[in-house]
Specification:
Blueprint: H1 9-20, E1 25-30, H2 37-45, E2 49-54, H3 65-82, H4 94-106, E3 114-119, H5 131-141, E4 149-155, H6 158-166, E5 178-181, H7 187-196, H8 203-213, H9 217-220, H10 229-238, H11 247-255, H12 259-269, E6 276-277, H13 278-285, H14 293-302, E7 306-309, E8 320-323, H15 326-335, H16 345-348, H17 353-368, H18 371-377, E9 385-391, E10 400-407, E11 411-418, H19 428-444, E12 450-457, E13 472-474, H20 476-479
Parallel strand pairs: 1-4, 1-5, 2-3, 3-4, 11-12, 12-13
Antiparallel strand pairs: 6-8, 7-8, 9-10, 10-11
Helix pairs in contact: 3-4, 4-5, 6-14, 8-15, 8-17, 11-12, 15-17
Length: about 475
């Protein structure tokens, strides 16, 4: 039921509009695996599907290409029969399968909205199966002309969705009527999620949970009430049968063909907080443009693993790619190395240097995916602003500003992000660091705009003789606001 959907207000409104439209709609819902695409569509249209089919997962079957092709056709035929098709055998090809689907739909009333949902569409496109051509023929040759048809397709395989649907330059070019990118939950939505499950967790722990799970509903669903966050993390990641211990590899294999190249890139990006240029990625991974680098980067961006940005004052040649997926960052920090053998690792190291360093870096990424909340806290939601890092280009100056908000109202916010267990205090030495950063920025990136220092921290800023260095303060509670 729709009442069970957490957040997704814009997506719900848009899907309602498309359902009510008086024309054929071809809607692509995409996003990384486990983000809730299928759940959203099922809850929105429960009981109203004219046809609903989910492809077989190729990762759960030990089948060669030809056998998997036949298996996909067989289960498609089963779905057709569930919705009233009279053929007792499986279709022999995808052309035949979509011909039968067309016959099924043509028997419906023309005054009724026909909702067809094809879930995990990329999985149907097995090698040499002819699926893409048959699907194009179904939509271009018939579906696009049916004013009462709403075709919804979902897929986690971002590379396939990008190449075959969104950026397709052949039969399906420009044919989709709407693309809906479903992103991970915000902190606000995570809080709603736990409240709906009657799980009590204060915002400090919820923030750390977000740093581990990255706002992915499926991962969050494994949190058990009645046990601490640390106990949950140990159970899910560090115990011998941890549910999410092997999730990273499964995730990338299900999302991307040639997953090894994608993993190489996120491994490289995880080594530098500000990210890497395209040239640096090539140097670190050996993957060239001829190796599909552009497509890989586009797919990683579409799946919310990375962002692309041009540093403040830079040009397109300085374009950086930055890892922002918190689950991946957590995995790279603690699971991939294999150094953490203890089943109680998290509980035993809560105050260790390694966890504190990870929290600091992860908090910065949390801030990057909550830019709208930061703008709201600063009272500039309606002001256009470019948000990006800045780094000194002077050889002997290593000054870096992790988040700079360049506003159209002639103000630049230099943001310092500090994770703290209590009110953060600016002491004499840190005040000198802040003054040095501001001075470096003003000398190397002169601007007629006013420059304000903004501190983003968990519990706010402790008043003392140095606290006035920050013109504004954004707290953890601000990050939990609705955008």
């Amino acid at each position: 039921m729709r009442s069970k959907i957490i957040g997704r207000k814009y997506e719900q409104h848009l899907l309602d509009e498309l359902y009510q439209s008086k024309q054929a709609e071809f809607v692509v819902v995409y996003g990384r695996r486990r983000v809730g695409k299928t759940y959203l569509i099922r809850e929105m249209y429960e009981g109203t599907f004219t046809f609903y089919h989910t492809a077989l997962s190729p990762f759960d079957l030990l089948s060669d290409g030809e056998l998997l092709y036949r298996q996909q056709l067989e289960v498609f035929g089963q779905s057709l029969r569930e919705y009233g098709d009279y053929h007792s055998e499986a279709p022999k090809s995808w052309l035949e399968a979509f011909s039968w689907l067309r016959e099924l739909l043509e028997r419906q009333s023309r005054r009724k909205r026909l909702v067809v949902f094809l879930d995990e569409l990329p999985w149907m496109d097995t090698p040499r199966s002819g699926f893409a051509a048959a699907f194009e023929h179904f939509w271009n040759g018939w579906g696009a002309g049916q004013r009462n048809l709403m075709l919804i397709v979902c897929g986690s395989a971002a590379s396939w969705i990008n190449d075959k649907l969104i950026n397709n330059t052949s039969g399906l070019y420009g044919r989709t009527t709407r693309e809906i990118h479903l992103s991970p939950f915000t902190l606000n939505e995570c809080e709603q999620f736990f409240t709906s499950r009657k799980i009590e967790m204060d915002r400090y722990d919820l923030l750390q949970c977000y740093m581990v799970m990255g706002g992915i509903p499926y991962y969050l669903s494994y949190i058990e009430k009645g046990t601490s966050l640390a106990q949950n993390i140990d159970r899910l990641f560090f115990s011998k049968s941890g549910k999410l211990q092997l999730e990273f590899e499964r995730l990338f294999k299900s999302l991307f063909s040639d997953a090894g190249k994608y993993i190489k890139i996120v491994q490289a990006l995880s080594t530098r907080r500000e990210g890497l240029t395209r040239k640096e990625i090539v140097e670190k991974t050996g993957i060239t443009s001829g190796g599909g680098l552009t497509s890989i980067l586009q797919s990683l961006e579409a799946s919310d693993f990375i962002i692309k940005y041009v540093p403040y004052g830079g040009s397109s040649r300085d374009t950086h790619y930055k890892l922002i997926d918190l689950f991946t960052l957590f995995y790279m920090s603690f699971i991939e190395s294999g150094d953490t053998m203890s089943q109680n690792f998290w509980q035993s190291n809560l105050h260790s240097a390694s966890l504190n360093a990870w929290r600091g870096i992860s908090f910065e990424e949390v801030c990057y995916v909550h830019q709208a909340q930061i703008k709201k806290a600063l009272g500039i939601s309606g002001v256009h602003a470019e948000i990006k890092p800045w780094r000194s280009k002077t050889a002997d100056d290593h000054t870096q500003i992790d988040m700079l908000i360049d506003r159209d109202d002639r103000i630049i916010n230099l943001c310092e992000m500090k994770y703290s267990t209590g009110e953060f205090s600016i002491d004499k030495s840190y005040d000198a660091v802040l003054r040095g950063k501001i001075q470096s920025f003003l000398q190397q990136a002169p601007s007629r705009k006013a420059v304000h220092l903004t501190l983003i921290t968990t519990y706010g800023l402790k008043p003392n003789k140095y606290s006035s260095r920050a013109q504004s303060v954004v707290t953890m509670d601000n990050l939990f606001e609705k955008a």
